[in-house]
């Protein structure tokens, strides 16, 4: 039997780990760490550092195994099909690593950036293993980038009694502002879709890059006043680090 633990590790700050996450990391037999390739090894490096810090005095420390994360095939036009094929490829790599290092079963952990439930496909990939392995699945929640964003700016997520919608840059760009909502959290936005919205003077943005990390960057204000600053800062940060994770909260002014 394989016991697979998906462990939320927060947004890049080792202090964000919960006590449950710490205990889970220390009790694994195997920990899998994805490597996204040149320019993005900060993400694997953080996972390695978390393990090194937590396992220094552990009598039976888990084996740490890294694997190269496959690249999505850009030739597949259908986005959903492209993602599904990518997840299938990752599941095959997981299965190969687990059976190679735990041939008789055991506990394997995967450290998930942020929380496994929020715009992360680790649980979907894990479900692909169920027909292939005798497996029990445990999911341990972690601090999300949304929590780190609102904490960094000192703002509440919602207005009093009002809903909040969490969406992606692709959805905002293609479908515009959703009806009946005055507050949006936008993730996975490589093109800064807030630039495409009508009536930007009615919008306030709270933007964070590397939320929760030591190199966190925060900019906020009316969209027309800070849009250019966000674009320039984002480009500079991506060039300096080779990758960027950013997120923002948009509030629309209520009608008079």
UniProtKB/TrEMBL annotation:
Pathway in which the depicted protein is active: Cofactor biosynthesis; adenosylcobalamin biosynthesis
InterPro entries per UniProt: 4pyrrol_Mease, 4pyrrol_Methylase_sf, 4pyrrole_Mease_sub1, 4pyrrole_Mease_sub2, CobF
Keyword Methyltransferase carried by entry: yes
GO MF term (any one): precorrin-6A synthase (deacetylating) activity
Tetrapyrrole methylase domain: residues covered: 4-224
Family annotation (Pfam families): TP_methylase (PF00590)
EC number per UniProt: 2.1.1.152
UniProt key word Methyltransferase: yes
Swiss-Prot/TrEMBL keywords: Cobalamin biosynthesis, Methyltransferase, S-adenosyl-L-methionine, Transferase
CDD domains (UniProt xref): Precorrin-6A-synthase
GO biological process, one term: methylation
Reaction catalysed by this enzyme: precorrin-5 + S-adenosyl-L-methionine + H2O = precorrin-6A + acetate + S-adenosyl-L-homocysteine + 2 H(+)
Stored NCBIfam families: CobF
Annotated PANTHER family: COBALT-PRECORRIN-2 C(20)-METHYLTRANSFERASE (PTHR43467), PRECORRIN-6A SYNTHASE [DEACETYLATING] (PTHR43467:SF1)
Full protein name: Precorrin-6A synthase [deacetylating]
Species this chain originates from: Tritonibacter horizontis
Gene name of this polypeptide: cobI_1
């Amino acid at each position: 039997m394989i016991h697979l633990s998906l462990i939320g590790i927060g947004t890049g700050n080792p202090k964000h780990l919960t006590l449950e996450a710490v205990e889970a990391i220390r009790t694994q037999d195997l920990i899998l760490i994805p490597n996204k390739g040149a320019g993005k090894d900060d993400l694997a490096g953080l996972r390695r550092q978390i393990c090194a810090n937590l396992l220094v005095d552990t009598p039976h420390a888990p084996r740490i195994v890294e694997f190269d994360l496959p690249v999505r095939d850009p030739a597949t036009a259908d986005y959903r099909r492209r993602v599904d094929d990518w997840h299938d490829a990752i599941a095959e790599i997981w299965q190969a690593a687990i059976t190679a290092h735990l041939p008789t079963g055991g506990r394997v952990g995967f450290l998930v950036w942020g929380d496994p439930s929020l715009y992360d496909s680790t649980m979907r990939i894990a479900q692909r293993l169920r027909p292939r392995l005798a497996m029990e699945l445990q999911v341990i929640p972690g601090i999300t980038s949304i929590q780190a964003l609102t904490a960094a700016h000192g703002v509440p997520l919602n207005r009093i009694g009002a809903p909040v919608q969490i969406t992606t840059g692709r959805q905002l760009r293609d479908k515009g502002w959703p009806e009946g909502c005055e507050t949006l959290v936008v993730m996975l936005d490589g093109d800064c879709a807030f630039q495409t919205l009508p009536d930007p003077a009615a919008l306030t943005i709270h933007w964070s890059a590397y939320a929760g990390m030591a190199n966190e960057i925060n900019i906020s204000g009316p969209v027309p006043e800070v849009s250019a600053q966000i674009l320039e800062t984002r480009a500079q940060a991506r060039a300096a680090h080779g990758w960027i994770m950013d997120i923002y909260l948009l509030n629309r002014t209520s009608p008079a």
